[in-house]
Each structure stands twice: as structure tokens, then as C-alpha cells.
Amino acid sequence: MTKSLTLTAITACLALAACGGPGAQPRTGSAPAGGIQVDPAAQYCQGTGGQVIPRTQGGRRADLCRTPDGRTVRAADLLNAHNDL
Length: 85
What we know:
The chain has three helices and five strands. The protein has 85 residues and is α+β, with helices and mostly antiparallel strands. The strands form two sheets. It has a three-stranded antiparallel beta sheet. A two-stranded antiparallel ribbon has the order 2-3. Helix 2 packs across helix 3. The longest helix has 18 residues, at 2-19.
């Protein structure tokens, strides 16, 4: 009887330990912490050494990118010109 009770207690402890704590669940979704949306075109602009100029057109985001050589282009156009979709 004692062995059975000990085995049950050990099994219960292991089952509880396997559940994990409050920080054990992985994050899902594409939004980073804080709920801020990251624009891939703006990231690409910065990655090429450009400066992002925030802009909204028709209620939608339409950032510009000032490239290191001084040109100003739409960030999305820059991204699409250098990446095959």
C-alpha cells in the first residue's frame, strides 16, 4: 500500500511539473511586444542604410525612404524592387 501511495504521489508531482509555469507558453502572432506593427519595407530601408520618413496616404501607411545616395523613394517600392515576390 505504501509503495502504491508513493508512486501515485511521485506521478502527481511529475504531472504538475510538466504543466510549466506562467512564462512557459510560447508567444504566437506576428506583432512584437507592445502591439506595435513592424513594417517590413521600413525595416528593409533601415537595413540598407536609409532613413525612414513616416507618411500616411488615404488612411494607410506609405512610408518613404531616403537612401544613402540621397534619393527619396517609397519604402515599399524599394523593397519590391530588390526582392522577387
